[in-house]
Write a structure and sequence with these properties.
Layout: H1 2-16, E1 34-41, E2 47-53, E3 70-75, E4 81-86, E5 91-94, E6 104-110, E7 116-122, E8 131-139, E9 142-152, E10 160-167, E11 173-179, E12 187-192, E13 204-212, H2 214-224, E14 245-259
Parallel strand pairs: 1-14
Antiparallel strand pairs: 1-2, 2-5, 3-4, 3-6, 4-5, 6-7, 8-9, 9-12, 10-11, 10-13, 13-14
């Protein structure tokens, strides 16, 4: 439990932005674990993998970057390997990496202490979007705005979708994940908003849509399903070996842009 709470704190700082609310908890020491976030996709030519260690609550720092690791991603379909460069701040990058839909990839990481971690992922084929738009919903006299993406889900296939949203000049933040369990082969509309659900007229929205593997969907679905008030929270299920926290994903992806305009008058 303590490790999970600590990991979520670290995760929120690194990937979802800083939190304004602070909660003081009396928690003891925890066993340090590696936190590996390898979210690779073909919407960008460059790729980054973040490696940190879960920070003990008794530690005054909020980040514990891991340096000196050897990071390699292999396309096991073609046999080509890509070596990532240590940025000296817990980030490992490569300027250009070709990712092919349908190919399988393997992550190999060896830490400076000799500890090793591995993971595999098959890159899904991208499901094209037919239209994007805005949806306005009224709740208790309040209007809420959502970005919508409409498409036909491929029939007879398991498909999983993940969205990140960038609002104006903010950083990209996780928004939502979906599966096609109940709408296989149907016309689907995904409704996307920011974490505060406060999109408004004048906002500029950038959406990253990713078609992801099932185990990556499971990871993010676990995070969505966490109840902060639960007496027994749990670690999201990772697809990385040797007890590491985090995940390895190779996804097909595309960016979409929307401006929130005034509602047209008839």
């Amino acid at each position: 439990m303590k490790l999970f709470l600590n990991y979520i704190s670290l995760f929120m700082i690194l990937f979802l932005g800083s939190c304004e609310d602070k909660i003081d908890l009396e928690l003891g020491s925890i066993e340090e674990k590696y936190v590996i976030v390898a979210d690779l996709h073909n919407a960008n030519p460059s790729q980054t993998i973040q490696i940190n260690k879960a920070v003990d609550f008794s530690n005054n720092t909020t980040k514990n970057p891991v340096l000196g690791a050897h990071v390699l991603v292999e396309n096991t379909t073609s046999g080509r390997s890509y070596k990532f460069v240590d940025g000296g701040d817990g980030s490992y990058t490569i300027d250009k990496m070709t990712l092919n839909e349908g190919d399988s990839y393997a992550l190999h990481i060896e830490m400076s202490d000799g500890e090793a971690f591995e993971a595999t992922c098959k890159m899904p084929v991208f499901v094209n979007v037919d239209s994007i738009g805005l949806l306005r919903k009224k709740r208790f006299d309040e209007e809420y705005i959502y970005a919508t993406l409409s498409f036909v889900d491929p029939v007879g296939e398991e498909n999983y979708y993940k969205y990140k949203l960038k609002l104006n000049d903010e950083e990209f933040k996780f928004s939502d994940v979906f599966s096609d369990k109940f709408n296989d082969g149907l016309l689907v509309e995904h409704e996307i908003t920011n974490e505060d659900n406060d999109l408004k007229v004048g906002d500029r929205i950038q959406i990253l849509r990713q078609c992801i593997a099932k185990d990556v969907y499971t990871y993010w679905s676990n995070i969505q399903g966490q109840n902060p008030g639960s007496a027994a929270p749990f670690n999201p299920i990772s697809n990385i070996s040797n007890g590491a926290l985090g995940y390895f994903s190779v996804s097909s992806a595309q960016y979409y842009h929307l401006d929130v305009a005034e509602k047209r008058k008839l």
